[in-house]
TrEMBL record:
Domain of life the protein comes from: Bacteria
Gene Ontology cellular component annotations, sorted alphabetically: plasma membrane
Chief location bin: membrane
Keywords, comma-separated and alphabetical: Cell membrane, Membrane, Plasmid, Transmembrane, Transmembrane helix
Protein name according to UniProt: MASE1 domain-containing protein
InterPro entries: MASE1
Subcellular location: Cell membrane
Residues of the MASE1 domain: 33-170
Record-annotated membrane-spanning stretches: 9-28, 34-53, 60-77, 83-102, 122-149, 155-175, 211-231, 238-256, 268-286
One Pfam family recorded for the sequence: MASE1
Membrane topology (UniProt): Multi-pass membrane protein
Length: 414
């Protein structure tokens, strides 16, 4: 198993190093006319994704690799070694700081309002923008101390290049793969993605100026925002990445030393604000859908509980197996409410054991409900017969459930 893990890590490292090198060399082909800084910086999104998706113990591997490749590619394309080292050093300092601060944000709870994910997304954007801005200021100071002339445009160029790449991939990283509503057709979603890509490619490659006063970017942004109501959060995140690649690549090939740097900045500002708006709207739609699914599941559970005088509802978080009781569990487990906080502990109080059946039902995903009669063993020696049931919630890993006291044991509940 250890050999397989090492081989897997080496494979990931080789892919990361190869892709980082190609993206860096491509980015260095687009230098602004007043410094050694590149107008676009594709590796920023790749490094952010590697840090986001990996454990902190693996960060040195990605950071050392990124720093060395950044410096080597810079020297290869004509940067002085000192300048290449300064840019590489701040590249591997700013992005780990971004990810650490993002992970410190409190996780969203299931009972949050639909607006809380929007606020969280804005916090994430503010953290990344603040880190990159401070990094740009420190980078400019170091370049001045090293004897290089730094223009104000240099500060703007480096910040926009890194911020555009980071925000374009942020929404894809924070989205979940299994949150697509069942009512949405995959074929319809693919058609919407194809329409967006065709529009992005057409407006980016062809010289389409305003038509009767209509800016094509407004059309593209409007279609992108409307697509959020059809696409899942992960599909919307993928669309933002493709938009960044298409538009930035088109700018890169169109850049010339004369007059296109302002056009590049305008496009980058568009990519930044479109990523913010699309991310916030997609998070709101996804959160609203989750709340609807949770409410529907709660209603189904309440219907199941309505026929019993003694019942208790709970949420089961998987794969952790943590139980969140929606009432006092002392009704079924007097004087031991704190000890029955996981599925394993609940299983230990019951006979026959049910945890294997629950895991098998959850993995197969064949039915929406799980029901099983159990006998609860109380510390007082009493045994009560109950019905345990679990209800799936569409697009989420946690389950709604409840315990119903069967009528024959009602007298044993005090």
């Amino acid at each position: 198993m250890e050999d397989i893990s090492i081989k897997k890590t080496l494979l990931y490292w080789a892919g990361f190093a190869t892709l980082y090198t190609l993206l860096a060399l491509f980015s260095f082909q687009n230098r602004d006319p007043w410094s050694f800084s590149s107008t676009v910086w594709f590796p920023a999104g790749l490094l952010l994704a590697a840090l986001w998706l990996s454990a902190r113990r693996d960060w040195p591997l990605w950071l050392i690799t990124a720093g060395l490749l950044h410096a080597l590619c810079g020297v290869y394309t004509g940067r002085p070694p000192l300048l290449a080292g300064i840019f590489a050093a701040f590249d591997v300092v700013v992005f780990p700081l971004c990810v650490m601060l993002l992970r410190m944000l409190p996780p969203l709870t299931r009972t949050s309002t639909s607006f809380q994910p929007v606020v969280t997304t804005l916090y994430q954007v503010a953290i990344i923008a603040l880190c990159l801005t401070l990094g740009s200021i420190l980078l400019s100071c170091c370049l001045l101390l090293a004897g290089y002339a730094v223009a104000p445009q240099h500060f703007i160029s480096w910040t926009l290049a890194a911020l555009t790449a980071a925000l374009s991939i942020l929404h894809y990283l924070q989205s979940e793969s299994g949150n697509m509503p069942a009512t949405r057709s995959r074929g319809y979603s693919y058609m919407v993605i194809a329409i967006n890509l065709g529009m992005m490619f057409t407006f980016s490659v062809t010289d389409t100026g305003p038509w009767m006063g209509l800016n094509p970017l407004w059309v593209q942004l409007s279609v992108l925002l409307l697509s959020v109501f059809v696409l899942s959060a992960r599909q919307a995140g993928l669309l933002l990445i493709l938009q960044y690649i298409i538009m930035t690549t088109a700018i890169s090939f169109a850049l010339s030393p004369q007059a296109t740097i302002l056009a590049a900045w305008q496009t980058q500002w568009y990519l930044i604000f479109s990523a913010i708006l699309t991310g916030c709207l997609s998070q709101f739609v996804t959160s609203h859908h989750r709340l609807l699914c949770t409410t529907q599941s709660e209603q189904e559970v309440i219907v199941q509980l309505a026929g019993s005088a003694t019942c208790l509802m709970f949420y089961l978080n998987l794969p952790e197996g943590e139980i969140e009781w929606r009432g006092s569990p002392s009704v079924f487990f007097p004087n031991e409410a704190l000890s029955v906080s996981t599925l394993v502990l609940l299983n230990a109080h019951c006979s026959p054991p049910f945890i294997a059946d629950v895991q098998r039902w959850y993995q197969r995903a064949e039915s929406a409900q799980f029901r099983q009669q159990i006998t609860v063993q109380r510390l007082t020696g009493e045994q009560i017969h109950c019905l345990l049931f679990l209800q799936r919630i569409s697009g989420q890993t946690h389950l709604a459930g409840g315990i119903i006291l069967l009528s024959a044991d009602t007298a044993q509940i005090s």
